[in-house]
Amino acid sequence: MTWHFTGESVVFRRAAARHLATEAVRNTAVLSLLDRPGRFGWWVEPDGRVTGVLAVSPSGVLDLGATTEGAAGALLFPTGEEPTTVRGETAAVRAYAEASGGPWEPATRMRLFRLDGLTPPDPAPVGRARVASAADAPLVTAWTAEFASAIGEQPAADYTDFVAERIAEGRLWLWTEPEGGPVSMAAVSRTIEGQARVHLVYTPPAERGRGYAAGATEAVSRAALDGGVARVLLFTDLANPTSNALYQRLGYRPVTDHLVVERSAVPA
Description:
Number of strands: 12
Strand content: 25-35%
Number of helices: 9
Structural class: alpha+beta
Oligomer: single chain
Largest sheet: 12 strands, mixed
Radius of gyration: 19 Å
Low-confidence stretches: none
């Protein structure tokens, strides 16, 4: 039993093909990173089965896919190359954190959802949905920075390319009030292995409580389904009961709970 590593996503896909396909939903985070720079790993059992996969970004973020506790607990990194953040299913992250010796601090508890029959919001919010255009980029860029702050992340210096890519590919939707002004947004990832993930759901504080996020989420989810996506997914922060209840009303059902831990600073 051992971990294997590569910097080539093609090699990784070939080695872990069956596991990535049969556990595509649970492997959504790792699959979404295959077109980015990083290192990829897979755990092989004595009988040849792959029962664990991971991706490590250049910045030191470790994403564990569908991985057994045994595989996670056996994961070792050379001194100086240990991850600074670990994300994945709760049991696997805890197994790695305990085996590695830390010190680790819990950062976020999350839940992965899968759409199981889209249900329009009732009552429906006033306004309508539309695909964002290039003219919306400045507003959406500002909202993206606000969204990052709202979920406890340090906003990036510039979201211009991040936003432009989603707008150019028609993956970002806005909910607009009757007069036409945008009041909420939601985006969907590129389709990988027949699945896409809803993200960037954000409504400015002054516009909340009117159902706009439900309208934007329903619109982007329906667009994904209409585009042929077989499985529509999303992650929620378990500390936000409002969003968790909202997504379940729209037809999303829990799959697995996830945990994010960050390496603690060691006292001098």
